[in-house]
Amino acid sequence: MDDILILCKKVDYSKIMDNIVYELDHYLKLKVSSEVEKTIHGEIAEGFTFLGYTKNAEGFTVRESSVNKFKDSLSQLFTQFKYSKNRNLEILLWKVNLKVTGCINEGRKYGWLFFFSQINDTKLLFELDWLVKKYFINAGFKKEYCTLKIKKFVKAHKEITLNLSGTSYIPIFDSFTFDEKKKLLINIFKQDISGMKTEQIDWLFKKMIYISIKDLEKDIQPIS
Fold first, then answer.
1. Residue 59 contacts residue 121 (beta carbons within 8 Å)
2. Residues 6 or more apart from 105 whose CB is under 8 A from it?
């Protein structure tokens, strides 16, 4: 199922709509949904939502339901930490920071902020930074620790939009050295790699990163 956004003059709407429906049906053999609530039209000034984005008078932000879903996802990390028998701060910090920044693996971008990188709603980014800090403090961590260790949505968004090619703030797993891979496997994923060959360690690293990426993808599905 695909969504289509048409930006046009009001007087041209009906003609363009009819042409698109005809071409989808006649040439591509695709049917347009007949559900009334699936087809919305109006003035741009009134705002609209599309693929998880919301266009309003200030610009582009994230649809409220998508924001709430992401907040719930963050909250679940701290709930899991709270009731875990073996609390590990390093693992919690890794998971939270990865949700904040997203990552690049095998040349592809992953994460909530990458998907919504076109927003200009800095108020939302500051709100999310405040929320993450609040979660850590409520979990018993000092404010100083939060300031030093936790990555920020505001900074990550700037890196994504202005400095992605030169960033060291966002994990780019393709560029990890062999020693960095081993450190991550041992300290974060708690894997015993003693006696493993280089290719075995590389394979295990890819496997663990794949699992982490699958968790990131849950934050943006579904988005229509």
1. yes
2. 172, 173, 174, 209, 213
pTM: 0.84
Tokens of 157: 């968004």
Taking each helix axis as running N to C, give the angle between helix 153-162 and helix 89-101, from 0 to 180 degrees, rounded to the nearest 10.
50
In a 10 Å sphere around its CB, with 0-12 CB exposed, 13-18 middle and 19+ buried, how is residue 140 labelled? exposed
Residues 142-198 have pLDDT tens digits of 877 777 789 999 999 999 999 999 999 999 999 999 999 999 999 999 999 999 999
For the chain, domain boundaries:
10-61, 63-214
